[in-house]
Design brief:
Blueprint: H1 5-49, E1 50-51, E2 54-55, H2 57-81, H3 86-101, E3 105-111, E4 115-119, E5 122-134, H4 137-149, E6 157-167, E7 172-182
Antiparallel strand pairs: 1-2, 3-5, 4-5, 5-7, 6-7
Amino acid sequence: MNISKKVLLIVIVVIIAVALGVLFYIYSGQNGERAQLDDRLSQAQTDLNGDTGNPGLIDTRETKEDELTQAESLLAASQAQFPESVESIEYDDDLFEIAEDYNVMLTTVTASKPTNKTVGAVTYSVSSFVVVVHGSIDNILDFIYALRTGNDFQLPWSAEVTSVKTNVSGGSADINLIIYGYKG
């Protein structure tokens, strides 16, 4: 079987054309894929760095870090303004229980920020309180006496009543006291 040179030439040209067509198809596909990757890379860079009018992720991160620093600073300043000690809450619980025992109503309890006082090897937590109570004068006096003696305290603390302002006609008293709590 002898194939003529013309047929052989046509077959070779067809094979080369098919090969070129396949190569062109592969190249076009890779070119399209490269264009998509370039677009995605460009979008990622825009997201990272931002563009006009829109902050990028780097700017947003720096802004959020600044906001976090400001919030932490504000938190520290706020915490410094308020009595932080749990003891004052525990003292309040005792004060309310004692008031209930002596049939007086606590209407206001204001505590100062606790400080530490060391006497010898013992450290005490010292807090000032202003307590406003309402009730009969006898019950108010019994309440004040209970504070001074400390018999009804649930916690290891003692109170020094520094001043009492009574309103006999209104049945109320403003009591200033200092509470000493043992810190162990």
